[in-house]
Specification:
Number of strands: 8
Number of helices: 6
Number of domains: 1
Structural class: alpha/beta
Order of helices and strands: EEEHEHHEHEEHEH
Shape: globular
CATH superfamily: Alpha/Beta hydrolase fold, catalytic domain
Largest sheet: 8 strands, mixed
CATH architecture: 3-Layer(aba) Sandwich
Length: 230
């Protein structure tokens, strides 16, 4: 797993993200003069401890982008999902948690005025897109890493935030799904292919490319963007 440069002059704290139906554990990182805040939507049974997403978050922090990594499931739900895999594809539930986190952020003095981006991996990408469709005036950008945007269903046609779909060149089935999803989306969307990479971007340099492209995309969309409340 690659490592990012050490982060300096930023605030770091554990938080409890309170939504309508759950209290979720999270880790908030806010660099000085942050341009925006990216919420991470994990997928396929992952959590805020995902080493891949934590690496991407570190790269974003070094690019003056704040990050919130939080669990989409409570500890009890996580144990249940680990046993029967019943919740990792419950996009309605996962999207509801992302929407709840967006609303929670708006109430936090430290970060409530920052433009918001969503970074979704695997099934979390679908949850992020559904949330972007539900909060169009709050979400400034969406990035998907090896995601399943097809699982967002009809919400795809309602996403107006600029969207970047990052897919491994050797992840052929997921690439096909992303291409199909792009054809259905009405807002600005592009596919970025990491040549030679498979679904988990385990090849040397692959995850670094994901993080670099995500950071550049979020910075571009955040600069000049201001918060507009729903």
């Amino acid at each position: 797993m690659p490592t990012a440069k050490p982060r300096t002059n930023h605030q770091s704290r554990e938080v409890a993200v309170i939504t309508d139906d759950a209290t979720l554990d999270g880790q908030l990182e806010v660099p000085a003069e942050a341009l925006g805040l990216v919420l991470f939507a994990h997928g396929s049974g992952s959590s805020r401890h995902s080493p891949r997403n934590r690496y991407v978050a570190e790269v974003l922090n070094n690019a003056k982008v704040a990050t919130l990594l939080f669990d989409l499931l409570t500890s009890q739900e996580g144990e249940r999902d680990a046993f029967d895999r019943s919740l990792r594809f419950d996009i309605e539930l996962l999207a509801g948690r992302v929407i709840g986190a967006i609303d929670w952020v708006a109430e936090q003095a430290e970060i409530g005025e920052l433009p918001i981006g969503l970074f979704g991996a695997s099934t979390g990408a679908a949850a992020a897109l559904v949330a972007a469709a539900a909060r169009p005036r709050r979400v400034a950008a969406v990035v998907s890493r090896g995601g399943r945007p097809d699982l967002a269903g009809e919400a795809l046609t309602l996403v107006c935030a600029p969207t970047l779909l990052i897919v491994g060149g050797r992840d052929t089935e997921v690439l096909r799904m992303n291409q199909s999803a792009r054809a259905r989306m009405q807002g600005p969307v592009e596919i970025s292919i990491i040549e030679g990479a498979t679904h988990l971007f385990e090849q040397p340099g692959a995850l670094e490319q994901v993080a670099s492209r995500a950071a550049a995309f979020f910075r571009e969309k955040f600069i000049g963007n201001t918060r507009i409340a729903d």
